[in-house]
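Hi Y.,

Following your request, here is the sequence exactly as I used it, all 141 residues.
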Amino acid sequence: MKKLYVLLFVSVFASSVFAQNNNCFEDYKKVFENRGAYPVEDGTHNNVILSNETKEGTECYICTAKVMNGEVVEIAIHFEDNTKDLVVFQFKDKLPWTIHNGISRTRVTNNDEKIHLMFADKIKPKKKEYKKAPLPKFELN
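Below is the corresponding structure, written out as C-alpha cells. Let me know if you'd prefer a different format.
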C-alpha cells in the first residue's frame, strides 16, 4: 500500500513538473523580450494578438488594432470566416492604452479580465549567428 502512495505522489509531482505552460501571452512576451520590436506607428495593424486573461486561463485571438498618437483606439477581432467584429471593452481605469516594445499596456476590464495587445508584425528578426567551421577531414600531423 505504501508503494502505491509513493508511486501516486511521484506521478503527480512529475506531471506537474513536466506540464507545459499553455499561456499564449507569456509565450509571445518572451519572444518580444528576446528579440525586441520596432516602434508601432499610427494606423491600422492587422496581425495583432489580443490576449484575454481571466481566472480560468488565457486565450489569444487575432485582431486588427487602430493606433493614433501612439495609443490603441479601436479593436476588431477576427472570426474563422475572416470577418471582423468591433470590440469595445469597459476598463476600470481611464489611462491611455500605450504601446511599449510591441506590447500594449495591461488594461483591466470591469469583469477583471486582463487585456494585452501584441503587434506580431513588429517583432524584430532573429539575430544572425556566426557560421561555425567544420571539423577537419584530413590529418593535421
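The chain has a mean pLDDT of 84.

Thanks again,
Q.
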